[in-house]
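I would love for you to help me understand the pair of lines that follows before we discuss the fold together.
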Amino acid sequence: MNHESLARGVPHAAPGAIVARALTGHLHIDPVEGHTVWFGRNRPNVDLCVGENDLRVSRRHGVLTRRDGHWWVSNTGQLPIRLPGTRWLFRDEESVPLNSGYTPLFVRGSREREHLLELYVADGTAKQPVPQHDSVTQPPTRWRFTHDEHLLLVVLGQRYLLHEANPQPVSRQQAAHMLAELQPDANWSVKRVEHMVADVRARLSAGGVHGLLREEVGEPVGNTLNDNLLRELVLSTSLVPPDLALLDPLP
């Protein structure tokens, strides 16, 4: 079998067609309304076998369906399917529409294993990417902040900058206390922390970052909004570990 990744494109596919690839094989399906493609562990009873030696993978773990001009993915298995953007799709949840282009799905298995199912929905314009060995590297989008915003975000995200295994944002109360120690004359309070962080999230959301608004993540919100914010700042290198030097004056 050819293990070439679909992430590199599908140059010869009709608009709306979907190509699916797993470790055991691949399929090319035309965009016929009502068409279904089953995937899971039971090779004889699915269209594409995924995780055939993993008993945590359901025999029919999920299905792709063509309807209303789109391909939709549904989870029919016992364990969740991980989609891009840290989203999880659970059994009996509403189907998720697939965007044109490349989408990797990760089927949860045993002992933290995840089985990859690559999908590519053609839009009629896909071409094999051209090698660009000598081209200038495109820098990430680095977000800019005022001095006080930057200091607040370093305080809030210090555990992420320390590369802790499962970091969480510092609480509003603790952040306000630390900031008051760093800037005794700056009138830091829990309310000021809340308002400034909310302003930063709104600004980044308007700039195209998903998962920073309450309506985008659902209830209960908990730390999700600030967790998403801090992960974006670290991944975009808007916050970097040397920023922790700003906290050196703390006792």
